[in-house]
């Protein structure tokens, strides 16, 4: 397969970036998108050019590291997958592929396609924990009965890998789906009730401080989320937030 | 946004109901309009609340849009918004600004003359004037055209906005599909009523 890649190259956050064209050939349909970039980087290294910097780690869709906007969509044209799970057979011989970093003011570019997503870490640090005594007498979480549907919904929310596709897809660069998943995974469980009000208020405050946009319920985040995190989580967070604010 | 939007949606429903009476019975329309125009609760409590609701809604909408634009300081070279979200949900600011511009015309057409009639010129009460005032406004094909286009844009705005307001207030449960169906029906029927009224008076008067 022969392709024309248009890749965002940017030296650092202070410099201006631009799309650079790279023709590439010999790409197999069974390669993953990241393997295709590996091939390109090998060629660039052999030519003495600087390879393209991009985030990756597990390459099996569970770490949330890869973060590419491919032909205008986060993680590319397929659904419920991350970039590392995207196969080149989804493209045709002769295609032009535009590759950019996830764009949000809160996700500054570090270099080329690599972005700084520590804003997500700070949102989690603002309230993504529960009060458990870990001195050695910790009660097994399974000892506390939890309704099946709530346990499932909590688990589903907890499958968020924090990749940032929701922010990248949203026309407002809103982080509501991510934040609501992190709120929901605790809000649905008995262990999460102790800090429930404080948690949602602190996490939403941090989300706003980071400069993410507002949710206008377009639903783009849910469609592009590689883990299928539902908009129900945003509604739940809104309920939690309104209740917490009303109680003061 | 959600609360002010829901309030305005509720107002639209009652406005459409009163206006529809102009097609069915001019007397009923005159009597309801006179009540709305001279009842102190409507004039001095509900009317200021309504105007405040409109102002809050569009000011907040513009502020949110500016914040949202700031949240992405570098635009994508390629952004496929249509792949994951409907056009109406991505263009609420556009449809909203058209509706806002229409409101300017609508206030100039009806509200400003009404305020002048009652409070500046201090004319005596005339419970029979409303129907012919309404009909005269719809003689102009240009005005009718602007009204029709504006109501189509209003329908698009409501199509997303009405259902979206429930999600913003935390309502997403087993009743959500029914709520979505109701809000979409409302988004079509109410603007259609306004379009019908404008066309009815235009064609009924000139033919």
Concise overview:
Chain A is an alpha+beta fold and 248 residues long. Helices cover 34% and strands 12% of the residues of chain A. In chain A, the strands form two sheets. In chain A, strands 2-1-5-3-4 form a five-stranded mixed beta sheet. A two-stranded antiparallel ribbon of chain A has the order 6-7.
List the defining traits of the structure above.
heterodimer; A: 248 residues; alpha+beta; Ubiquitin-like (UB roll); Fumarate Reductase Iron-sulfur Protein, Chain B, domain 2; 2 domains; five-stranded mixed beta sheet; two-stranded antiparallel ribbon; 8 helices; 7 strands; 12% strand; B: 207 residues; mainly alpha; 81% helix
Structure description:
The complex is a heterodimer of chains A (248) and B (207). Chain A has 248 residues and is α+β, with helices and mostly antiparallel strands. Chain A folds into 2 domains: 3-111, Beta-grasp domain (Ubiquitin-like (UB roll)), CATH 3.10.20; 118-247, Alpha-helical ferredoxin (Fumarate Reductase Iron-sulfur Protein, Chain B, domain 2). Helix content of chain A is 34%, strand content 12%. Chain A has a 5-stranded mixed β-sheet with strand order 2-1-5-3-4. Chain A has a two-stranded antiparallel ribbon with strand order 6-7. In chain A, a hairpin with a 2-residue loop joins strand 6 and strand 7. The longest helix of chain A has 16 residues, at 232-247. The mean pLDDT of chain A is 97. By secondary structure, chain B is mostly helical. Chain B has one domain (2-70, 88-206). Chain B is built from 8 helices and no strands. Chain B has helices at residues 2-24, 26-38, 40-70, 87-90, 92-120, 130-137, 141-168, 176-206. The longest helix of chain B is centred in the N-terminal third of the chain and has 31 residues, at 40-70. Chain B is elongated, with a radius of gyration of 19 Å. The mean pLDDT of chain B is 96. The chains are: A alpha+beta (248), B mainly alpha (207). Chain A binds chain B through residues 6, 8, 19, 69, 71-73, 77, 98, 100, 103-106, 169, 171-174, 211-220, 223-224, 231-232, 234-236, 238-240, 242, and chain B through 64, 67-68, 70-81, 83-86, 89-90, 92, 160, 164, 167-172.
